[in-house]
Amino acid sequence: MCPSCEPEPAANGNGHANGASNGTNGSSNGSNSHPGFTAVQTKSNPHPHRANPYQPVGDFLSNVSNFKIIESTLREGEQFANAFFDTEKKIEIAKALDDFGVDYIELTSPAASEQSRADCEAICKLGLKAKILTHIRCHMDDARIAVQTGVDGVDVVIGTSSYLMEHSHGKDMTYITNTAIEVINYVKSHNIEIRFSSEDSFRSNLVDLLSIYSTVDKIGVNRVGIADTVGCASPRQVYDLIRTLRGVVSCDIETHFHNDTGCAIANAYCALEAGATHIDTSVLGIGERNGITPLGGLMARMIVADRDYVMGKYKLHKLKDIEELVAQAVEVNIPFNNPVTGFCSFTHKSGVHAKAILNNPTTYEIINPADFGLSRYVHFASRITGWNAIKSRANQLGVEMTDEQYKECTAKIKLLADIRPITVDDTDSIIRDFQRNLKLGRDHTTRPE
Amino acid sequence: MCPSCEPEPAANGNGHANGASNGTNGSSNGSNSHPGFTAVQTKSNPHPHRANPYQPVGDFLSNVSNFKIIESTLREGEQFANAFFDTEKKIEIAKALDDFGVDYIELTSPAASEQSRADCEAICKLGLKAKILTHIRCHMDDARIAVQTGVDGVDVVIGTSSYLMEHSHGKDMTYITNTAIEVINYVKSHNIEIRFSSEDSFRSNLVDLLSIYSTVDKIGVNRVGIADTVGCASPRQVYDLIRTLRGVVSCDIETHFHNDTGCAIANAYCALEAGATHIDTSVLGIGERNGITPLGGLMARMIVADRDYVMGKYKLHKLKDIEELVAQAVEVNIPFNNPVTGFCSFTHKSGVHAKAILNNPTTYEIINPADFGLSRYVHFASRITGWNAIKSRANQLGVEMTDEQYKECTAKIKLLADIRPITVDDTDSIIRDFQRNLKLGRDHTTRPE
């Protein structure tokens, strides 16, 4: 019921370099600094050329194979607690995102501060392939500043939940609708793209939402936006709302998901299945609180759904560099469990997994690390290792034994690994000692030192 | 369309301590080590006693309000690249999870190594409230070892996808079914709970799956398991498969979701909506590759769905301690974007957000940090701050001015924040200088130094 990985490009051999770096904490082959890991070369072609019986069945609504990214590291990401981007850093990030292939780059409102306005103008002048957007409140003052900056489009937002109407801006739906119409007509008159979005859409009145979206669609907005501003929405709620909205408006549908309850990637996917066209992302998901749909996590989800589309459009091998650029700029570590680029995303440890991976990586990998310029690792220095992993390591060391001897040698390694964490060097020593003792005809049941 | 937070316990006041720690990188009030943050006390009761119009409508299938946790840090978590737990650490983690209130604790197979067996026996003897499970391959050798350890239940697993049948164990469905029946009957004869699970369920043949689950259900298995071993499943696929299975078996349904494509929390939620009863978790999600549904992330999702159930069952204020315990044991940092306990999960930065949060936190928070013993923060030292946040900070400092003066003072702060990252001390200095100049009758348009 799931797609497997697609065929490997022929030029790549099996595509899995031995000893290449794997994530920020990745180890090179046999390094002591990351004990117990080694990059592995697998016997068989892991991604054989054959039809995939598990390809999901799409329907007429789905944009899973035709989505666009609105990259908001320079807007939502600037609302991340640790973020301060000076002009130079903003330009560096914008260029990297453009090179990666995102469709739009969204910037902080030029009304936020004088430097925000100047930076917005500077990025508009770079001549990037990506369209440049800025994000403003639904207010003519902000709109007037925005259209002067040279942006390709303006993203307008206003809170529509009872919470925000009561405790934030204090306006009712009539005021919101009238202001929206004024702002939209003004921006359109400057031949600039315009999106109108509610804020906190999943706690807004459905009739209010559909009513205002229908209105702004009729006056010619380019996109409407659905925002889970507080991160409360569940995937099936997202599907239902977007599917309903898809029947109400004919314009594009942009979606924005916060990650407070851990569903931001899944919600983006379900939105696309229901007919949304654009997904807001940020690098590493940085944004207000614990952030939004991460660019890398979305790539992980979407490459599993349609590898051809994703590989044809985005430079996936640049993902790790972009994440490191932004992580350094906002002074955070790339999380150990980050999709794709986390240091252990492609590390296999248990004996059962290692054995299967050595036969064929598609057994326990839905993503081919080579697509992102990364390698897989087999961790063989632990008590849950198996003899197939040890045999593989022994062969890397040029040690050949019988299967029975590999099994005995593995038992020795597990015996030591039961007592303390062991390193690649420990394991290699045991393998070499075992073989030496065999050659010398010594008792091979001797305990490791 | 989303639940808001529930009423606050009366004894707690508004429940939001001023200056309490917020996550590992949390700052105390006004500390220079974490510039620009301060814990805030909000004016209004953020969680008023009123009916919630956004409560999702449950249906007869849903176990969102009646789920059980099988905590697998000591099994799946031991397969995490960095994990080595000695006996003492295992016992410490088991006790902490038991105290937290998880329903089951799952341990590494006693067949994995001699120490794994001894540790399993030791944990069974602790007399914990949680039931102790061990996880074994579908093989009589493993089953015989497992039933001798004193566990309350055995979790049996075998790969059923074509990938695993071909490249891992090499057995066909007839062999799998016959072995399953033998193992299940053997374990049941010892009056021990038994779960039978396929591995890589979402790449398995649906007819094979339903057929074997129907068979094992009839012979009296306690639970069947659905495992997304490679992390490929999407939320709607999960809902469909579990809902179908719910119509086929009458026993409990356990689910296990890997996080390779970032959907592990969302998939767990959709599984419960479709009638699953048990969710596998690990602390921080540690496991093979980048892991499974995290305990803390699941709590974040579920407290939004049914706060009473979650608060009544689990000691949420212990979550941070447990995460720190496990993070130290496996030598990783708690990710900056971790649900609930990430250092910025409850930090609000943009002017619009800060203003609304100061009025009522439910505007931009779907989770009450006090439920987890944590605090919210307002970050007011940046160029995207607003005058409401600065007014709030000024009032904390005992500085009273007119709204017009707060706005002018805010403009000065934004001017400096446009140039470089600023600290709480910078902001406080500007506020105090501004007031001093006002008192002295000086020109209050003077630039900050």
TrEMBL record, chains A, B:
InterPro entries: 2-IPM_HCS-like, AIPM/Hcit_synth_CS, Aldolase_TIM, DRE_TIM_HCS_fun_bact, Homocitrate_synth, LeuA/HCS_post-cat, PYR_CT
Named cofactor requirement(s): Mg(2+); Mn(2+)
Biased composition (Low complexity): 9-36
One Gene Ontology MF term: homocitrate synthase activity
Pfam families attached to this UniProt entry: HCS_D2, HMGL-like
GO biological processes: lysine biosynthetic process via aminoadipic acid
Region described as Disordered: 1-56
Catalysis performed (reactions): acetyl-CoA + 2-oxoglutarate + H2O = (2R)-homocitrate + CoA + H(+)
Entry annotated with the keyword RNA-binding: no
Keywords: Amino-acid biosynthesis, Lysine biosynthesis, Magnesium, Manganese, Metal-binding, Transferase
E.C. no: 2.3.3.14
Annotated GO CC locations: mitochondrion
Pathway in which the depicted protein is active: Amino-acid biosynthesis; L-lysine biosynthesis via AAA pathway; L-alpha-aminoadipate from 2-oxoglutarate: step 1/5
Domain Pyruvate carboxyltransferase stretches: 67-320
HAMAP family (alphabetical): Homocitr_synth_fung_arch
Family as reported in the entry's similarity comment: Belongs to the alpha-IPM synthase/homocitrate synthase family. Homocitrate synthase LYS20/LYS21 subfamily.
Stated name of the protein: homocitrate synthase
Lineage summary: Eukaryota, Fungi, Dikarya, Ascomycota, Pezizomycotina
